[in-house]
Specification:
The structure holds 2 protein chains of 2 kinds.
Chain A lengths: L1 H17 L3 H12 L4 H7 L9 H30 L22 H15 L3 E2 L5 E3 H4 L24 E3 L5 H9 L4 E10 L10 E11 L4 H16 L5 E8 L2 E10 L16 E10 L1 H7 L7 E8 H9 L6 H4 L2 H4 L3
Parallel strand pairs in A: 1-4
Antiparallel strand pairs in A: 2-3, 4-5, 5-9, 6-7, 7-8, 8-9
Helix pairs in contact in A: 1-4, 2-4, 5-10
Chain B lengths: L1 E3 H5 L8 H10 L3 E8 L6 E11 L7 E6 L4 E6 L9 E5 L14 E3 L2 E3 L2 E2 L38 E7 L10 H12 L12 E5 H4 L1 E4 L7 E8 L8 H9 L7 H13 L3 E5 L7 E6 L5 E3 L5 E3 L5 E4 L4 E4 L3 E2 L12 E7 L2 H11 L4 H8 L6 H16 L2 E4 L2 E3 L9 E4 H8 L5 H10 L3 E4 L9 E5 L10 H12 L20 H15 L3 E2 L5 E2 L3 H4 L24 E2 L4 H12 L7 E10 L8 E11 L1 E3 L8 E2 L2 H14 L5 E5 L6 E11 L2 E9 L1 H6 L7 E7 H7 L15 E10 L4 H12 L3 E10 L8 E10 L8 H19 L2 E2 L3
Parallel strand pairs in B: 11-22, 12-15, 27-30
Antiparallel strand pairs in B: 1-10, 2-10, 3-4, 3-6, 4-5, 6-9, 7-8, 13-21, 13-22, 13-23, 14-21, 15-18, 16-17, 18-19, 19-20, 24-26, 25-26, 28-29, 30-31, 31-37, 32-33, 34-35, 35-36, 36-37, 38-40, 38-41, 39-40
Classes of the chains: A alpha+beta, B alpha+beta.
Chain lengths: ~325, ~800
């Protein structure tokens, strides 16, 4: 009998959903809840049950009656409101009352990525001045005056001894001057070179890295940068290390990744080589240790540096470096 | 540096494609930046024999030729002056396409039909020569296509554009690159041919050389050739020079350039008969001396400049450029050839000071092979006598007071392996170094029992002076790709970023949450910006750090404010109808601290809002921005980073700001920034007179001082609050904050908060007063306040406000 009652409730609720006007509603009321209605007739058979089951059955019947009456009233209100043309219809497709939201500059996003990955690996973020002494920017990095290596970077001068830093590498010296090994730092920042054309802006961004400790090897340099580039460009990124020259590292290595545009088949971005130059790196040159008073017989280390604009261009498919500094909303809004 | 593949093949066997060779060189550290074919798309061009030459009926400058193209005889109109009956010239028929993309068609040239074209070298991209048609070797059959492997022309070639790092001057020559290829491929290097038939007078009778400055010039060699015949260089030499980007001048000068490219030794040819007293003296210039280089420029010299002089006067700027007074001309009969080693620093200083960089100075300042000086001289004399004839004087002059001795460098095998992370054997290391022509010797086991080698690099490896340099060479030859990948265990040094570095990320995130977009502008600005921002004479905005060599005047000083960059950005965006802007920049400004000193670098956060605060939409009307929009954004930012006790003070003389609409911002009494509307004058200066902009600027260092080091939890209030509203008519001049101050002072610890919930600025007719409505929340920390005591306090607060501000309760 209990089952009968539950079945009845189920059917009533199903019926209720099909009702659309007042007369149907009245019909429903009479059918289920009227004096001769279905619910009443079931309840009349209460006496047929054993005495100990009666209270529970009574409770259930009452709950169903209350429930159905409630639903009936609710529906009655809706039907009458509708009849009077007062119902609210939610248009979920109207735009919401949105607050403004902004965008980080794509270069900030890349710097954030780079620093996050390297911080996780144990590198600490440090900063240094943009307007640098010649000593830190060149001299202590084993780039003496009158050396052709100075031609590698076109420099903006403030005075004979003061320059706009041409790379973030002077931070290496500033850190090593004030701290004994182990040193593990990264340094993001703006750098300046006297060069402006379709593919160069006179200001751009770099991130520098330096690790000095006992027993640091060229293999460790390869491992660290492989790990970093796999996080940055995906685990399947292929890379290669090839000999190069930087006055403050020896051996020096240029690091290329398989072209992310063409996958190595050759395209305009990679000048048909299938590879993209992404990082400069190398083992810290013993001459640099001389400037900061580290014992080159005890310590070894590696340094690396990368251009942020280049990373951003590759990662986001940006083909014009000038866009970064025009700050056009049509550009910035995409990041 | 550009060099030809065919040229390289003269000195080393290359049995791989140009592409493969390019990869090999790049992986050896000799980066190939470009690889271009040359002379490879000449399939449409054939050798044709000129049968007859007749004058053009309409003009003297053209001829009408009948030529045998192998496929028949055709008529061609040609303007070349060197046409000769019976000679062979390249011919392109109608429909043929030249390497530069031009397609030949039959055409009527001043009334005479020309069925094709006879070609000059430049039209085929072979050299830059356009003096006449190219004359082909006479043994070719008419109709032979030029695409085939036409020896000895070797038209089909590749040009490598190599990026040479400053440490490897030995790579600045074809022979040097060939030597590297030989080392990596295990092939033998072939040396250029030197055939000298000395037939002239002894050199000692012809010339004398004196070195007055042995520091600037450690070695000077010279030879003399008499009775040369000046003329054009042969095609093969002109072509190789062309592919390396060198213009052909005449056979003598071309030889000096050819040997410079071939062996990396810069040479200079003097007109022997114009050298007075037949002497060469190498000395420093006198202060104030001037000299006319062969490009016709008058150069003023200092005592740093090294000069080559004859018995009476300077004849060349040593290692950089020859002089007009002794250059080779069409009248030259006798030549004195110079081959010397000049000190790199001396040459570099002089070249930099004069702003004159040449192929010669480029090599000298990097360091050439001091032991190769006479070999190059002999090679050049051999070539000259071959191409220009003449009589070679017997012997050469070679002033070389301090002979070169190669350094002995100690190399520890275990140090090598420890630095590289390898386990190379002594024999392997020895093998790598010997492949690079180094002299490697065993050293007796040292005091600390480590295996050591003693290595002497060849004289052309001026970059190798230390153990570290040798380790690099070992790594390079072993191959970077073969060094195993390992991971360092990074020991914690100082852990964590400094707070000033954690904050930028957080502030940037909050700013974008508040609707602002980040911009990055150049750190250098126009020196006019101080005026444009209306800065007074003493303003710090004028403490510019000027750049000595700016690219443009509007990028010639370091910025002292982020406002110019941000307003320029507003301009960029307004120009394409982006009007409702919310932008910020986080960046450094720079203040001059004195000449030759680093400036004071300060980090600022600057934000701007323009346009509408709210656009018209289905649920609201549009609203333009005002002061309270920018202030609200700033307050939200400061609250979000945990700053309390922020006060805003009316200011009327802030640079850039409208005096009627600006305020200074302080935190616990210390100034941290400013906020307000940009003055209309400034907006006009930036061409933005139709835009209103609201700005805030925050000094990050000042802000950092105010940020609490740690956050402390405060327990919630246990007892209920009692609220009382109050509406007061006040003189317009009275600031709301002063009323709140009165409330807080009077109510002391019972005041939980005071909120302003209404502002009425009077009727149109009477604007002398305004009405402010406050809701005060009273709450005690240790008990429930009863209504009577709150009322009592509330009344006394109202009295106090009346008394202090002259205000009155608002009726109704």
């Amino acid at each position: 009998m209990k089952e009968q009652l539950l079945e009845l409730e189920k059917k009533a609720i199903t019926d209720l959903k099909t009702i659309s006007d007042a007369s149907e509603l009245e019909q429903f009321r009479v059918t289920y809840l009227g004096k001769k209605g279905l619910l009443t007739s079931v309840m009349k058979r209460l006496g047929e049950l054993p005495a100990n089951e009666r209270p529970e059955f009574g409770k259930l019947a009452n709950r169903i009656k209350t429930n159905l009456s409630g639903l009936l009233d609710e529906l009655r209100d809706k039907i009458s409101a509708k009849a009077a043309g007062q119902e609210t219809i939610l248009d979920v497709t109207l735009p919401g009352r949105a607050p403004f939201y902004g965008h980080l500059h794509p270069l900030s996003l890349i710097i954030k990525d780079v620093c996050q990955i390297l911080s996780r690996m144990g590198f600490r973020v440090v900063k240094g001045p943009n307007v640098e002494l010649d000593y830190y920017n060149f001299e202590a990095l084993n780039i003496p005056r009158d050396h052709p290596a100075r031609d590698m970077q076109d420099t903006f001068y403030v005075s004979d001894n003061v320059v706009l830093r041409t790379h973030t590498s002077p931070i290496q010296i500033r850190v090593m001057e004030t701290q004994n090994p182990p040193v593990s730092i990264i340094a993001p920042g703006k750098v300046y070179r006297r060069d402006s054309d379709v593919s160069h802006t006179p200001m751009f961004h770099q991130v520098e890295g330096l690790l000095v400790d006992q027993h640091v090897t060229f293999g460790d340099l390869k491992g660290t940068l492989t790990c970093f580039l796999n996080e940055m460009f995906g685990p399947d990124t292929r890379l290669r290390f090839r000999p190069s020259f930087f006055p403050f590292t020896e051996p020096s290595a240029e690091v290329d990744i398989r072209c992310v545009i063409c996958g190595g088949r050759g395209c305009r971005t990679c000048s048909n080589t299938g590879w993209l130059e992404i990082l400069g790196s190398g083992m810290v040159d013993p001459a640099v240790y001389g400037f900061v008073d580290y014992d080159a017989e005890v310590y070894s280390g590696f340094a690396f540096g990368m251009g942020i604009e280049r990373l951003a261009m590759l990662k986001y498919g940006i083909d014009d470096i000038q866009l970064f500094y025009r700050n056009d909303m049509r550009f910035l809004r995409q990041f | 540096m550009k060099i030809s593949l065919n040229w390289l093949k003269d000195y080393v066997d290359i049995d791989m494609s140009a592409d493969e060779l390019g990869r090999l060189l790049t992986m050896a550290g000799l980066e190939v930046e470009g690889l271009e074919p040359s002379g490879q798309s000449l399939d449409d061009i054939v050798a044709a024999r000129i049968l007859t030459i007749a004058p053009h009926p309409e003009t003297d400058r053209l001829s009408v030729c009948q030529v045998d193209t192998g496929a028949g005889t055709v008529q061609v109109v040609c303007g070349a002056p060197n046409l000769a009956t019976g000679s062979l010239a390249p011919f392109a028929a109608a429909g043929a396409t030249l390497p530069n993309g031009t397609t030949i068609s039959d055409s009527s040239i001043r009334g005479v039909m020309s069925h094709g074209m006879l070609l000059a070298e430049d039209e085929m991209g072979l050299t830059d020569d356009h003096t006449g048609v190219m004359i082909l070797p006479p043994n070719l059959a008419p109709g032979t296509p030029l695409s085939s492997d036409l020896k000895p022309l070797e038209l089909s070639d590749w040009v490598f554009d190599l990026s040479i790092t400053p440490n490897r001057p030995d790579w600045t020559s074809v022979l040097g690159v060939a030597r590297e290829i030989a080392a990596i491929t295990g092939k033998t290097l072939k040396r250029p041919e030197i055939i000298i038939e000395e037939g002239g007078a002894p050199i000692s009778e012809l010339a004398r050389v004196t070195i007055d400055d042995p520091v600037g010039c450690p070695r000077y060699a010279a030879g003399v050739i008499q009775g040369v015949e000046l003329g054009f260089s042969p095609f093969w030499m002109r072509r190789r020079l062309f592919l390396s980007g060198i213009r052909s001048i005449n056979n003598i000068v071309d030889v000096t350039n050819y040997v410079l490219l071939e062996m990396g030794q810069p040479l200079h040819a003097f007109d022997y008969d114009r050298l007075r007293e037949n002497r060469i003296i190498v000395r420093r210039a006198e202060k104030g001396e001037t000299f006319i280089t062969l490009d016709g420029e008058t150069r003023s010299l200092t005592s740093e400049s090294l000069m080559i002089c004859d018995g009476e006067r300077a004849v060349a700027l040593a290692g950089i450029m020859g002089g007009l007074n002794s250059e080779i001309t069409s009248d030259t009969g006798d030549v004195l050839l110079e081959s010397a080693f000049f000190d790199p620093v001396t040459i570099r200083r002089c070249s930099k000071r004069l702003g004159l960089s040449t192929e010669a100075s480029y090599r000298f300042e990097r360091g050439i092979d001091i032991e190769g000086v006479t070999t190059a001289l002999k090679r050049a004399m051999s070539l000259i006598s071959h191409l220009a004839g003449g009589n070679i004087a017997s012997g050469i002059i070679d002033i070389y007071p301090r002979q070169y001795t190669p350094p002995d460098i100690r190399l520890r095998i275990d140090k090598t392996n420890r630095l590289l992370g390898t386990s190379l054997s002594k024999d392997a290391v020895r093998g790598y170094l010997e492949a690079l022509e180094m002299d490697v010797r065993d050293m007796n086991v040292s005091e600390d029992d480590r295996v050591q080698l003693v290595v002497s690099p060849p004289s052309f490896r001026v970059d190798i002076t230390r153990e570290a340099d040798l380790i690099e060479e070992v790594a390079r030859v072993f191959g970077y790709e073969n060094i195993p990948v390992t991971y360092p265990s990074i020991r914690p040094g100082q852990i964590g970023d400094a707070p000033e570095l954690a904050l930028p990320g957080q502030i940037r995130q909050i700013m974008i949450g508040l609707g602002f977009t980040e911009i990055i502008t150049y750190s250098f600005i126009s020196p006019k910006s101080a005026d444009m921002l209306g800065a007074e004479e003493a303003s710090s905005l004028r403490k510019f750090v000027p750049i000595l060599n700016p690219l443009a005047i509007d990028q010639s000083v370091m910025r002292t404010s982020l406002v110019p960059g941000i307003l320029n950005t507003v301009g960029v965006n307004v120009a394409h109808y982006e009007r409702d802007l919310r932008l910020f920049e986080w960046g450094k400004v720079f203040f001059q601290m004195g000449e030759d000193l680093q400036p004071d670098e300060k980090v600022l956060l600057t934000a701007v809002m323009t346009g509408l605060s709210q656009k018209k939409s289905w649920h609201c009307d549009e609203r333009t921005l005002d002061f309270y929009d920018i202030k609200g954004a700033l307050e939200a930012l400061l609250a979000a980073i945990g700053l309390k006790e922020i006060t805003f003070n009316r200011e009327t003389d802030l640079n850039s700001y409208d005096p009627e609409c600006s305020a200074g911002v302080s935190c616990s009494g210390s100034a941290i920034g400013r906020v307000g509307q940009v003055s209309s004058k400034v907006m006009e200066a930036y061409g933005l007179e139709k835009v209103s902009a609201f700005l805030f600027e925050i000094d990050i260092a000042a802000l950092l001082k105010e940020i609490p080091a740690t956050k402390r939890f405060q327990p919630f209030a246990k007892f209920p609050a009692v609220y009382r509203d109050i509406s007061i008519m006040l003189n317009r001049e009275v600031e709301s904050a002063s009323v709140i101050d009165i409330v807080k002072k009077k109510g002391a610890e019972w005041i939980e908060s005071v909120e302003i919930f209404d502002l009425y600025e009077g009727s149109k007719s009477d604007r002398s007063e305004k009405a402010l409505a406050f809701r005060i929340s009273y709450r005690s920390k240790d008990r429930t306040l009863d209504g009577a005591e709150v009322n009592h306090l509330h009344e006394s607060i109202i009295d106090e406000i009346r008394l202090k501000t002259g205000g009155r309760l608002r009726e109704g």
